[in-house]
Amino acid sequence: xxxxxxxxxxxxxxxxxxxxIYTVLSTRAKTLQDAMxxxxxxxxxxxxxxxxxxxxREDKAxxxxxxxxxxxxxLTVRVGRWTIPGEPIAILVDFRPFFEKKxxxxxxxxxxxxxxxxxxxxxxxxxxxFSYAAGLVVESFYNHYLRHTKKRVIYHANEWMxxxxxxxxxxxxxxxxxxxxxxxxxxxxSIAGNQKPLYDYLFAYHGDQMAEELNMQSxxxxxxxxxxxxxxxxxxxDITANECKELLDKPVDVVLPNGFDNSFVPKTAAFTKxxxxxxxxxxxxxxxLLGENLDDxxxxxxxxxxxxxxxxxxxxxxxxxxxxxxxxxxxxxVLAFIEVPGWVGEPRKDLQERLASGQSFDTPLEVPQVTHxxxxxxxxxxxxxxxxxxxxxxxxxxxxxxxxxxxxDSKDGxxxxxxxxxxxxxxxxIYPSYYEPWGYTxxxxxxxxxxxxxxxxxxxxxxxxxxxxxxxxxEDGVKVIHRxxxxxxxxxxxxxxxxxxxxxxxxxxxxxxxxxxxxxxKKALWSEFIKYYYEAYDIALQKAEARMxxx
Length: 551
Prior knowledge:
Layout: E1 6-10, H1 20-35, E2 40-45, E3 56-58, H2 64-72, E4 77-82, E5 89-93, H3 102-113, H4 123-146, E6 153-158, H5 163-172, E7 177-182, H6 186-193, H7 207-213, H8 217-229, E8 232-235, H9 238-247, E9 254-255, H10 268-290, E10 299-304, H11 314-324, E11 334-339, E12 344-347, H12 349-357, E13 372-374, H13 381-388, E14 399-403, H14 419-423, E15 428-430, H15 440-447, E16 452-455, H16 459-468, E17 478-481, H17 488-503, H18 507-522, H19 526-549
Parallel strand pairs: 1-2, 1-6, 2-5, 6-7, 7-8, 8-9, 10-11, 10-15, 11-14, 15-16, 16-17
Antiparallel strand pairs: 3-4, 4-5, 12-13
Helix pairs in contact: 4-5, 5-8, 7-8, 11-13, 11-17, 15-18
């Protein structure tokens, strides 16, 4: 197998915490950094300019000579370390100067790769200018340090946002092996998000035609052409691999499942202490909001992730909690949190005052379903659905649902804890996704020893089934529910039944579930999954070497 001497990896989410791809890159970095000390270089957009970034530490001495040369070439870069485990080198580039050359760049892209940028809108231009700038950074760096060496070099682009850079490298530096990873096809996500049935009709959808119908031509075009031209095309799960074949007309070369680095999961004594602190805070927030003292025997469940109401199964979660209200088999009170960032205004002052007083309360606040005021209270999907079902968290209700519509970054004004510090306070996590290429949330849950419920439309759910050799049950640590385009109601019932079953388990049975969840998470560590990346590097390097021999 050919191994790279140097890897450049670009993503919109390098030193820029937006979503799941940040987790993929930031947890994988340590494994590659351990293997290739400082020969893996991440390239991201420079949003911070002169301001201090919480994710990046500049080092003006690193590649100082090249930094000066890059400036002479019209590239504004900052070089330093990404402040994550492993502290890999990161280069942040200011892409704004390239907007004035936008039409010229798009013209070049059409001439060489038939990418249609005519229908661009929204984030397409911004992402493309960053991607182009990232390509120029690699070209400049390669020419300065690597051109006259025999080093094997990889350029790895993540998502359609980095496609243009991969195509640029493919054109100007054919000796570099290129890899493109789509973490979800833009058109697949759009079909699912637009309430269209994705799975039953996947074989019949034509990607280009759907892109036109859904006004996605440019994103779809860059994604499809990048997949066609790179040396190694990859995605993150078998379910998305199928999507790529059908919608992009290109089978993937390798599936790169998303792993996890559990070095920051607290160990025994610290774990118990943090779990207690999380539960205490969640119950305090519930008391201040609901005016009801829920004891530690309360079953705390949650769902979390991006606010994609249908794709992430948030609608099914609310439906299941509503059905659970009338379930005769429920043995405990349930406190359910929806931890999904909405269009958040500000933390509720009345709730903050109650929490600050340290007292306990026996009357609820107004609107006892939400912790922060939203800009769109009357049009919010979660609150709208709860209102439709008359879910008002009344005293007599056995199930209380609370919407926590903010990023849990320890500065939200109510919880004031990070997501990882909150998640381990749960008894059960529920992620009934309809569209989920991989699914970090269930993997994170089990890494923190919290059993979870997911579906077989999530890459992680499919992988878990493969590990078990059958459909996962809650006793295995992960319950995997069969989900299709049309069985929404059955999924809601399966969640309701699983929560009711879990509420009746003995401490010993719960401990077994937690142990099995932990054991499964260990099989999804990067140390287990990194081999697939080496396979992709080998494919790309073999193709690059063959190309150079033929020149």
